[in-house]
Amino acid sequence: MLNVQDHRVRVAAARREEMRNCLLFSAMSLASDKSIHDIDVEEIIAHAQVSRGTFYKYYPSVSRLFEDLAAQLTHELAEALENVNIPGADKSVHLASSARLIMRLLVDVPVLGKLLIQLPWLNPNPKQDLFHALRRDIEQGIKEGLFEKLPAVIGLNLLIGSMVGGIHTMLLSPPSKGYEDKVIRQALIGLGLDTKSADKISTIPLSTKVTFPPTGILGKIAK
Fold it and tell me: What is the reported pLDDT for 44?
């Protein structure tokens, strides 16, 4: 009897997670064509093919849904990057390679990139996994004397601001190949790296590619 109850609990939990992901994915799909501030509940439930009551069972408002979406995506992206073998023990190399991979990924998958430049995660939140990983590299780079001695949050804002601006430009009108490398080069110089080192680090070949997990929001995109 206990096994049957456990099975029912697991099934119910899986269904709740599936419905939550369905709502999040619908919101993300809609955000690829319009501002998140113009998206209402009716559009989301129509896309997800659920009732208004189902929506409010999970979220009190559209803004709260997008906050949850931001947290979910940064978590999933961070996990995907953790599984990528980024070359170089040097934190400046690791930071630059991670940032370039993120930029390429978000431009190659426009639905993610277009959402990124609208979401609350533009203000680097240290609790969000993706920013935590980048901040960790910056903090270590400062300790090792690779970067200028400055508050890590300032360095993170500088890097994220450069990345978001670059992604926005690349989505509007695809610039020349390697544009993301030039963006990260300038960010590295801003962090205090000398020009010669920034030139070299920002052009190290990236032979690896980010693979989406089979589950979650990124899993839905992969399908």
Answer: 96
- Is the pTM higher than 0.85? The answer reads no
Give the C-alpha separation, 218 to 66, whole Å: 15
CATH number belonging to the domain at 63-222, selected among 2.30.30.100, 1.10.357.10, 2.60.120.1440, 3.30.70.660: 1.10.357.10
pLDDT for 122 equals 46
**Helix residue ranges, H only, the chain:** 2-31, 41-48, 52-58, 62-82, 91-108, 110-116, 129-143, 152-172, 179-191, 195-201, 216-222
- pLDDT < 50 stretches in the chain: 122, 124, 126
DSSP annotation of 218: H
